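Worked Example 4.2. Consider the chain below.
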Amino acid sequence: MLNTCLRLEWNDLNIKYDFETIDWKPESGYDTSVAPDTQPWRPYGAGRYLGLTIVLDAKLKEYYCSSTASVGFKLLLHSPIETPKIADFSLAISPGVETNVIITPRISSASWSILSLPRKKRKCYFTTERKLKYYRTYTERNCLLECEANFTQSQCHCVQYYMPKSANTPICGKKDDKCARDARLLMENNLYDDEEALDRLNRSESPSCNCWPACFETNYETQISQSKLSNAFVVDELYLNNTDQEYFTENMAVIHLYFVESQFPNLVKSELFGFIEFLSNIGGLLGLFMGFSFLSVVEIVYFMTLRLWCRITKGPMRKLQNTSLIKIHTEPKIVYPFSQ
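Applying the procedure from the previous section yields the following structure tokens:
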């Protein structure tokens, strides 16, 4: 995000950006040599001044239908490698309101030492381990959305408009709405192991996704504060866009997105007890309760190997020496008569 005001018209959407782009991934991130203007964009720092300001025109008089009972916009913060599900997880932004969105990243990573552990134990996937059909980078949400698309296609022979699909896959129409809703409900219930959903929906098949979280993920938590726009104050001409202040306060929505902190904690998944930690704990416990140490191990090895070998090899020589001494003492004894 950059310190800028973003205002888009429909004829402005088909434009070409001259910014350099990179294949950003949570595992590799940004290289130190990458310029700040490279897409995906990054903020220069924390605070509203270094954040992103968006001005949106709702054009209330042109409304003729809506998927909800309100007017305005939907906002969702997501990783740049994920497809957002606006209908399920978005925030509602009302026109005539100035909204401050405080962003707190939640960064998760993993130690590469757990790559050798079984996947069922670490409960996460590295990017190189799991490949998706419609996405280049694996994330849990990408996997769930692809699984939902595959299951909907198998049940209804079509997919919803927001789902990934191939070129020859049709989009579900109004006549397929019930089938698509049942497939989606069964998909959601399967995430919580609801076996009764199969009986309620009269289905014999359930989706099997096996979508564990990625070992490297970036998510965002938000805090929102809002205040109503007023035409009693002077508004910047950049925001008005050739309109008057009365139209601005009724139809426009001003959104400020920014970070509060410049540094954030990183949650690292690693082995709780590796081989080195195991040896350290065993040695510490034995030393605490038995006075045991690595010197004791050396002594045990010595007595079981070298000392035993010395006794076995030098035993016959000692027997010979003892036998020769006995022969010396068995010489005939001379008795002198005058000594009696």
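The CA atoms of residues 102 and 223 lie 5 Å apart. The radius of gyration is 38 Å. Compare this with Example 4.1 before moving on.
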